[in-house]
């Protein structure tokens, strides 16, 4: 056994792996900066593809010196093998290309606030397999890219992504202008640090019946605030106000 040759191969393999690792980290860092500075969405799918290419070249560089396998023969064999594997990896391939389509077409990108199948949240990442959507409670929804590419979803704008409402029923004889002013003031004070300062509390009235006038208090909260928390604060501060209608009593 030629120990010198074995040691040389081990050293060669270690150096090649170290160089590939350094190149991988450097290119990854540069790629992220370029994506952040460009109009291309910054998602891990692009970084993962580039990293895969780097490590593929790293593998090819050690095949013949270390393992005695010619790179051309390996690539040819890999081409035949990939045809066989493609039948078992159809979903994976579909997810990769769907993810690229979503990103390059700017259909969805990290930072978007979307509603998919009743689940709402911010897109945190689009990787080679799936799109991650996180709601305001910190729950992650993992959606395969191929599924999202075929599913209708809503991408919400800045004015609606942090908007929630509290329903109110106002007495028929109440002065709606005064009620609106009081509700806006009370709700603003109740929200406090939860409020999105870019928007003001709004009050709209949508109709009336025998029991009173139906209205909605529109609240705008920060991205990290759960709607239920804001609605609870405002509901508590509005409870018992003299201009609120007693629907139960009216029905009796």
UniProtKB/TrEMBL annotation:
SUPFAM superfamilies: Mechanosensitive channel protein MscS (YggB), transmembrane region, Sm-like ribonucleoproteins. GO terms for cellular component: membrane. Its main location: membrane. It is a multi-pass membrane protein. Residues 91-153 form the Mechanosensitive ion channel MscS domain. One of its GO terms (molecular function) is mechanosensitive monoatomic ion channel activity. Keywords: Membrane, Transmembrane, Transmembrane helix. It is found in: Membrane. It comes from the Bacteria. This is Mechanosensitive ion channel. It comes from Parafannyhessea umbonata. The lineage of its organism: Bacteria, Bacillati, Actinomycetota, Coriobacteriia, Coriobacteriales.
């Amino acid at each position: 056994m030629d120990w010198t040759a074995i040691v040389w191969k081990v050293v060669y393999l270690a150096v090649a792996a170290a160089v590939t690792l350094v190149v991988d980290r450097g290119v990854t860092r540069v790629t992220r900066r370029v994506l952040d500075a460009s109009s291309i969405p910054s998602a891990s799918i692009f970084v993962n593809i580039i990293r895969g290419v780097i490590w593929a070249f790293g593998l090819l560089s050690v095949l013949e010196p270390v393992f005695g396998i010619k790179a051309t023969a390996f690539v040819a064999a890999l081409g035949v093998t990939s045809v066989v594997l493609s039948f078992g990896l159809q979903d994976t391939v579909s997810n990769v290309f769907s993810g690229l389509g979503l990103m390059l077409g700017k259909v969805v990108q990290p930072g978007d606030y979307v509603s998919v199948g009743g689940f709402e949240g911010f897109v945190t990442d689009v990787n080679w397999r799936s799109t991650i959507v996180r709601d305001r409670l910190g729950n992650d929804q993992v959606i395969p890219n191929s599924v999202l590419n075929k599913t209708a979803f809503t991408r919400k704008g800045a004015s609606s992504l942090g908007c929630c409402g509290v329903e109110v029923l106002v007495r028929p004889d109440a002065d709606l202008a005064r009620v609106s002013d009081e509700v806006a003031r009370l709700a603003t004070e109740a929200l406090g640090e939860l409020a999105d300062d870019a928007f003001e509390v709004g009050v709209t009235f949508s109709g009336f019946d025998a029991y009173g006038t139906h209205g909605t208090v529109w609240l705008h909260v920060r991205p990290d605030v759960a709607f239920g928390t804001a609605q609870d604060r405002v509901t508590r501060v509005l409870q018992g106000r003299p201009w609120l209608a007693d629907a139960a009593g009216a029905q009796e």
